[in-house]
Specification:
21 strands, 6-stranded mixed beta sheet, alpha/beta, 5-stranded antiparallel beta sheet, 45% helix
Length: 590
């Protein structure tokens, strides 16, 4: 018996592989959610696979598209109890959203353990967006559900907690697979000569009806191609009208770095309007280390409202989010400053999602690793008409303070030539202090029309507990673990460091603790083993003159504050002018 197991998230793959090694059948395990999982399933159907094992929405989608048995891995009561335990102390409002099997089961578990968590039942996947948007408007920040629900929640800027399946559910699914194999004779679809000819064409052919249903595709990327076309048109009824008006429609799309040339033609069959898309893969964007383009990533009717909610237990962070929300109303370029690891890139994307540009591209250029040749290529690309898909989006200049002067001049030229993109920049140093010596004043004035500062984690330690819950959930998904939370003594340990690496450093510690833990909770020994750092303050050399000792102290505090002059002056109890004078005196002495 040949079985294909498709895991919608990485951690389930590890669990399937581990338990499958003891099963009396041939097993192949792949990771793929929805359309990616469907592609594996369709390939497996061709290659003589007998049974497919998957989960949730991925299993339902596959079941609709293939003729061989599909076994669904359930979410058991124990699985629900573990996740509900994980979120019970999470600050803010939480809701469980899912089909009846999940919602009703979760509601019963909540009632059993006397935990109040709102449960929402859905009957179709298309309902998830509207349900989550409604919850978001009502102030909910945490959404528990299956892979589809969590993915949409994160697209909306909410915190998604996945209901993962445990060992018992996987064993049960494998047992059902063996039973299905014994009682079901698999039928193979036989295709005619015309289909064989179409499948050997280099060109993709995709046929949709007016209801957006796939009537035919000559390749295994039907949903992939349909998604690309839907993202281009946004309004499919309008697409049908365009085709009917012009008889033949030509356009270009970009997906996964490729440019796709598409020709659409309308045909009428049995009084049903069909659209035939002839699709060619035209070209590929040059692969650039430091460039990332996200296009039409959110199918929401309006901007995200995530910045309107209370996302933090710390007033400084709440003020930052409120300020960011106000900035989305102004079409001004924004500079986000803060130490490394504080979440500047995520904040930039939230601003983009909360603006009127939310359905346009979010283009990231990492100034720390981009070279001059690639930067010139990007700027020329954006200022030309070759790739109009970037028009009107957001350009995120990550680590702009690390861009050499020569590259700054190229960037300034490109920005002036291509003025329709909203620019958000980030810097882990105070950018104004670099002007004249290491940063162009004209570029600074262009990118810092509005400014946001993200406080370091050591100044908002009240957020650590909620961040830990989010990170544990993410690691459970990634590594197939079933950690339900962190012990009080472990939490106390995690509150002690100053976290100069900020949120990024905290995540690395939690990730390591999850990997080494063999328990349901992160114990004190797990955290101690992950915290292999010397958190003691560095000793200052007290030899030499008073001026030399003072200089060493300033250098140490400046380094601890990630070279933020304002924060350094504040800690030293002096103003910025005095700090600047002392640093200048030090440089002159050197």
């Amino acid at each position: 018996m040949k079985v294909l197991a498709i895991a919608p998230y990485p951690g389930l793959k590890e669990l399937l592989s581990d338990i499958g090694s003891e099963q009396p059948f041939e097993l192949r395990v792949e990771t793929g959610d929805l359309n990616a999982g469907l592609q594996y399933a369709q390939e497996a159907e061709k290659n003589g696979t007998d049974v497919i094992v998957s989960r949730g929405g991925t299993a339902e989608l596959i079941q609709e598209k293939v003729s061989i048995p599909v076994i669904d891995i359930e979410v058991s009561g124990y699985d629900m109890l573990r996740v509900i335990t994980l979120i019970k102390d999470f600050p803010g409002k939480a809701a469980i959203v899912g089909f009846s099997a999940i919602a009703e089961g979760a509601s019963a578990v909540c009632s059993l353990v006397d935990i109040e968590v709102k449960t929402i039942t859905i009957t179709e996947a298309d309902e998830v967006y509207s349900k989550l948007e409604s919850l978001q408007r009502s102030g909910y920040q945490v959404i528990v559900g299956d892979v589809i629900t969590v993915k949409i929640a994160e697209e909306l800027g909410l915190n998604g907690i996945l209901l993962t399946s445990g060992k018992e559910s996987v064993i049960k699914a494998f047992n059902e697979a063996r039973k299905s194999f014994n009682i079901i004779e698999n039928m193979r679809m036989q295709y005619g000569i015309s289909d064989a000819v179409l499948r050997n064409m280099q060109q993709y052919v995709l046929v949709l009806n007016q209801d957006q249903k796939i009537i035919y595709c000559n390749g295994q990327q039907a949903n992939y191609l349909k998604e690309m076309i839907m993202n281009y048109f946004k309004d499919f009824d309008n697409a049908v009208e365009q085709v009917n008006d012009t008889s033949l429609l030509h356009f270009f799309c970009e997906k996964d770095g490729f440019i796709w040339g598409i020709q659409a033609e309308g045909i009428l069959k049995n009084n049903n309007q069909l659209i035939v898309f002839f699709i060619n893969k035209e070209d590929k964007l040059k692969t650039i280390n430091g460039l990332n383009v996200k296009i039409n990533q959110h199918r929401v009717t309006g901007p995200s409202t995530v910045l309107k909610g209370r996302l933090s237990e710390n007033y400084k962070m709440n003020n930052m989010y409120e300020k960011a929300l106000r900035f989305t109303k102004a079409d001004k370029n924004i500079l986000i400053e803060g130490e490394r690891g504080t979440g500047k890139e995520r904040t930039a994307e939230l601003i983009h999602l909360s603006s009127e540009r939310h359905q346009e591209p979010f283009v990231t250029v990492n100034c720390e690793i981009i070279n001059q040749e690639d930067l010139e290529y990007i700027m020329n690309l954006f200022s030309s008409k070759l790739f109009p898909f970037v028009n009107g989006g957001t350009l995120f200049l990550k680590n702009i303070h690390l861009l050499p002067i020569a590259n700054q001049k190229n960037l300034m030229t490109g920005i002036e030539a291509y003025s329709n993109m909203h620019i958000i920049s980030s810097a882990s140093k105070e950018l104004s202090s670099l002007v004249q010596d290491a940063f162009l004043s004209s570029l600074y004035e262009k990118v810092a029309e509005l400014r946001i500062f993200i406080p370091p984690l050591r100044e908002r330690k009240e957020d650590i507990e909620s961040l830990i819950s989010l990170f544990i959930n993410e690691c459970n998904i990634r590594y197939g673990k079933q950690i339900s939370g962190v012990r009080e003594e472990s939490l106390s340990l995690l509150q002690q460091p100053n976290w100069y690496g900020n949120v990024s450093e905290l995540y690395k510690v939690i990730e390591e603790a999850v990997l080494i833990s063999n328990n349901s909770y992160l114990e004190e020994e797990d955290i101690n083993e992950a915290l292999l750092y010397d958190w003691e303050k560095k000793e200052i050399n007290l030899s030499g003159t008073l001026s030399e000792i003072e200089t060493r102290i300033i250098e140490e505090v400046l380094e601890q504050e990630n070279f933020n002059h304002s924060q350094t002056a504040k800690r030293l109890g002096i103003n910025r002018t005095t700090l600047w004078r002392k640093l200048k005196q030090k440089n002159n002495n050197e």
